[in-house]
């Protein structure tokens, strides 16, 4: 009897509807394949030779196939969802890794830039790069040993504050010697009658002039670099500012430059600088230039 039922099912043909369209007739075996593939669902209307339309879920022979189709669909959905989640997680991890690498590269680049330029340091306006391998490495304004030890080289007249630029008084070569031992920054000079006159120059205003004018010394150093291409190193200089606000003397400690065209050029340029006039002992400005081979 079962064989007869199987034979009857194998020869039975079915119609099914998809919306308003009717498909078939197709063998029952083919309709089962469509059920398993999910192309025909439990609510799809089907009909056999009797012409009665009913949902596939109401046909006893199709129930087992519908359950198999539902189970397969759940498994495929779970597998697809897991794969999609894995792909999404991989994409997020890749994006996070790319962001981390970009941040590291940026930090390394910024660090290298800061290390090369030392931008985090507050650079004094007195320190400058003059180009062509020439730079100012140190600058200082004060009295110094030369202010008191070399008064015989520069007479320091005591001018009242606000005196005309051309005014002068009798030179007092040993004025600073009388004031030795005074605290730095409060230099004194000798006035008539033996009284001491406190120097009234403002170091900050002198620094401002140096910072503004120091670039005018660059041509002298460039010319010397051309004359002495083998030289590389520091050239420290000191110059004294007289009471009339003009540079009165220049010292270069490097033996080869104590005299010659470099000293003459620097002194000529320094003589063009203009500082405030003041009474008392002169200040000495120290600069150090570094010449590096190009």
From TrEMBL:
The keyword Metal-binding does not apply. Residues 14-62 form the GYF domain. This is GYF domain-containing protein. InterPro entries: GYF_2, MasK-like_C. Residues 165-189 are annotated as: Disordered. It comes from Anaeromyxobacter diazotrophicus. It comes from the Bacteria. The chain crosses the membrane at residues 95-116. Keywords: Membrane, Transmembrane, Transmembrane helix.
């Amino acid at each position: 009897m079962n064989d007869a039922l199987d034979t009857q099912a194998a020869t039975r043909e079915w119609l099914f509807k998809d919306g308003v369209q009717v498909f078939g007739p197709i063998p029952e075996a083919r309709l089962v394949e469509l059920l398993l593939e999910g192309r025909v669902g439990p609510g799809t209307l089907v009909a056999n030779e009797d012409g009665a339309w009913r949902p596939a879920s109401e046909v006893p022979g199709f129930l087992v196939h519908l359950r198999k189709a539902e189970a397969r669909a759940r498994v495929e959905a779970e597998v697809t969802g897991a794969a999609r989640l894995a792909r999404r997680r991989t994409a997020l991890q890749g994006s996070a890794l790319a962001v981390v690498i970009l941040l590291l590269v940026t930090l390394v680049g910024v660090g290298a830039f800061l290390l090369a330029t030392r931008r985090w340091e507050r650079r004094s306006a007195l320190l400058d790069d003059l180009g062509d391998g020439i730079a100012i490495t140190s600058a200082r304004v004060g009295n110094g040993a030369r202010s008191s030890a070399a008064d015989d080289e520069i007479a320091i007249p005591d001018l009242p504050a606000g005196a005309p630029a051309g005014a002068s008084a009798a030179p007092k070569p040993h004025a600073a010697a009388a004031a030795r031992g005074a605290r730095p920054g409060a230099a004194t000079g000798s006035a008539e009658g033996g009284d001491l006159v406190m120097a009234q120059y403002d170091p900050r205003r002198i620094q401002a002039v140096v910072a503004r004018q120091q670039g005018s010394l660059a041509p002298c150093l460039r010319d010397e670099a051309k004359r002495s291409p083998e030289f590389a190193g520091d050239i420290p200089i000191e110059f004294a500012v007289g009471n009339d606000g003009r540079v009165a003397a220049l010292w270069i400690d490097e033996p080869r430059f104590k005299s010659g065209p470099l000293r003459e050029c620097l002194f000529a340029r320094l003589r063009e600088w203009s500082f405030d006039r003041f009474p008392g002992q002169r200040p000495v400005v120290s600069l150090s230039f570094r010449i590096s081979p190009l």
